[in-house]
Amino acid sequence: MTSAGMLASRLEYARFEKDRWKQVTQVDWKSIKDENVKRQFKVLSKLGTAALPEDRLEKYDQLQSGMERTYSTARVCNLNGTSCDLSLEPDLSEIMANSRDPEELEHVWLAWRENTGKKMRNSYKEFVELINEAAELNGFSDGTELWLDVYDTADFQSQIARLWDQLTPLYEQLHAYVRGRLRQHYGEEVVSRDGPIPAHLLGNMWSQSWGNLLDICKPYPEKASVDVTPQMKAQGYTPLKMFQMSDEFFTSLGLIPMTPEFWNRSILEKPDDGRELVCHASAWDFYDGKDVRIKQCTVITMEYFVTAHHEMGHIEYYLQYARQPQVFKTGANPGFHEAVGDTLALSVATPKHLKKIGLLEEVINDPEVDMNFLMSVALDKIAFLPFGYVMDKWRWGVFSGDISEDDLNCEWWKLRLGLQGIEPPQVRSEMDFDPGAKYHIPGNVPYIRYFVSFIIQFQFHKALCITANQYDPNDRARPLHQCDIYNNKEAGKKLAKMLSMGASKPWPDAMEAITGQREMDATALRDYFQPLEDWLKRENQENQEIIGWKTDEPVCTREP
Ligand SMILES: CC(=O)N[C@@H](CC(=O)O)C(=O)NC[C@H](CC1(C(=O)N[C@@H](Cc2ccc(O)cc2)C(=O)O)CCCC1)C(=O)O
Ligand SMILES: [Zn+2]
């Protein structure tokens, strides 16, 4: 059982970390003159969960791997009960993406939560105690402080809140428009004029991105769709070809190509020998500068083509910082690691680039195709922002005690309703535990890194597009969303310079190396979507859509 092996190696590594930490704390490293060496000691002076006594650490790992196993092995029945071995990937994700039957969507949405989150509630409560115990052993007040230490930013949570405040007007316009198109499609009985959007209708099991609604939300339905999944299938794309094309984009910028070990040891599609596999895509660094791998149960869709770039972004970062000292072999901050692949994917997904690689037939510079493209990116990127925020705003509240263990589920839905403007298909209760239905909660993977990434990837894209002379703020003929940095060695060199730093400098230095700025800034994201924002405002006005949503309907009741 590899999970037993995983547990054993986690414990062994914790022992190593604790020994190393004991040695470091005996050194007066704060008086070391060399900034680089001092920074290495500063990182090593933090122990994390390895500070727990062995028996508590074993309990921590067992709880976490138990919740993750519940998640990874969950199977549900389909609507008519003819089969009961449907798994999340690919079965349920495919239904949530493509079914337009509210009854089927509601069934799958509820059944998934019944078989995952609901079974984890007590484990998670115990797990939170252990995270807070580990935090206190590190001199932090709670798990939230422990988790945010890596950002090394005094007012990090208020910076995030400010970024979200800047973006809510844009989100509310998109929300109003999508609710309108869903109401047209499903009728007023199913989707109201002024209420939250039913969560199960948004094309994704967690309503985290709405890209699968492009068919319903396309501004110009009769124009070309930028979802090239059909062309990929028609041209016989394989998972291997998808990753080879991603590698080709990276090397066109002069970045480091995928290594022989990568091609020999990665798992790029679900094995058909019945092996149980955690199918959640992942990238792995074996810290020797050569052995780097991706594990992905790839399906031939545009979504997975973009994901291949995301995962390869992690691999490129591993290769670029391979010569750094061990403690600096990580991202400038976790958001940087998440932004690399997505930044390049912003170029790959453009109609201009898709035409270059033969996935989109002749597309003249048609403003309506362009608006369809911008909408497809917004459905993924803008819809995602409040979800990315909710995932850790809720956990920060739970670790700090602001959210009591009796209100776990209803506080989750208060945030989902307040920030995302969505509601469950049926009123939930404290017998449920819906956060546990999303991988990163049982997987105990922090999530604010994705919110950070979705902001800074537009700062990186804008800076690299200016370097590639693909975008000029004063030239409306070359808008940011049409930029494709493909083949531009200057842009690649600028990106590589930042990537090779790893975590050797505070993240504002890395941000400055690419953008010239030292802070996270939503302006680049707003610039990118400006044409769509103008279009949405006009469209919502014409349709007299109500902006925002009522929050007076109950979404969750504490069990009596
Ligand atoms: C050893 C290890 O853990 N390695 C790390 C990498 C590292 O830290 O070195 C790793 O492989 N993490 C896995 C995780 C997988 C994915 C994910 O979880 N995505 C989020 C959010 C999101 C959604 C849309 C999007 O475009 C980008 C992100 C979700 O699906 O909710 C699934 C598909 C995409 C990325 C990842 O790659 O980030
Ligand atoms: Zn990632």
Report on this structure:
This protein is mostly helical and 560 residues long. It has helices at residues 2-25, 35-44, 54-73, 88-98, 102-115, 121-137, 143-148, 156-186, 214-217, 229-234, 239-252, 260-265, 302-320, 334-348, 351-356, 367-400, 408-420, 448-467, 489-501, 507-515, 523-542; strands spanning 197-198, 282-285, 292-295, 422-423, 428-429, 556-557. It is globular, with a radius of gyration of 23 Å. The relative contact order is 0.12. The structure holds Sampatrilat-Asp and zinc ion (ZN).
In short:
With 560 residues, the chain is an all-alpha fold. Helices cover 56% and strands 3% of the residues.
Topology:
Layout lengths: L1 H24 L9 H10 L9 H20 L14 H11 L3 H14 L5 H17 L5 H6 L7 H31 L10 E2 L15 H4 L11 H6 L4 H14 L7 H6 L16 E4 L6 E4 L6 H19 L13 H15 L2 H6 L10 H34 L7 H13 L1 E2 L4 E2 L18 H20 L21 H13 L5 H9 L7 H20 L13 E2 L3
Parallel strand pairs: 1-4, 5-6
Antiparallel strand pairs: 2-3
Helix pairs in contact: 1-3, 3-6, 4-5, 8-16, 8-21, 11-13, 13-14, 13-19, 14-18, 16-17, 16-18, 18-19, 18-21, 19-20
The protein binds Sampatrilat-Asp and zinc ion.
